[in-house]
């Protein structure tokens, strides 16, 4: 069965972005960019929502470092507001229900999937029990005043079992987990 990987980048305080800050909070370093250039999971289909698609296609059009591998990857955008043709190559637009589409893909296809951003999409896939791995890259910044898009608001309680970790450039943390959605706090 194909794997579904949720893949986030975040500030230490759990924001996906911050007002006035550049992509990766301007803290991407050579080791991190080299890892992105190696295109981990390049053979996975990338899943995203309309907002993330707009951001990523803008980054790619501007030549933002680290976005080059995205061009060659197979991508699916779940949206009822976008229309074809889409600017990023190798992108399929799906207007139907994302949870049902991903459930069908996991049951009938052999290609694994991963997300980029797409907070609402990821939340719905996790709640539906479809996520096999949860990867977070934590950037060493707190954006309490300027942070926007709190990642975990509205999420269920989730236990995370760490399966690997890595440090890039002496400061950026990659944490890779297997998630288990909980019905509530564990009993003590």
TrEMBL record:
Cross-referenced SUPFAM superfamilies: Dihydrofolate reductase-like (SSF53597)
GO-annotated biological processes: riboflavin biosynthetic process
InterPro entries the record matches: DHFR-like_dom_sf (IPR024072), RibDG_C (IPR002734), Riboflavin_Biosynth_HTPR (IPR050765)
A GO MF label: 5-amino-6-(5-phosphoribosylamino)uracil reductase activity
One protein family per Pfam: RibD_C
Occurrences of domain Bacterial bifunctional deaminase-reductase C-terminal (ranges): 3-173
Protein name (database record): Deaminase
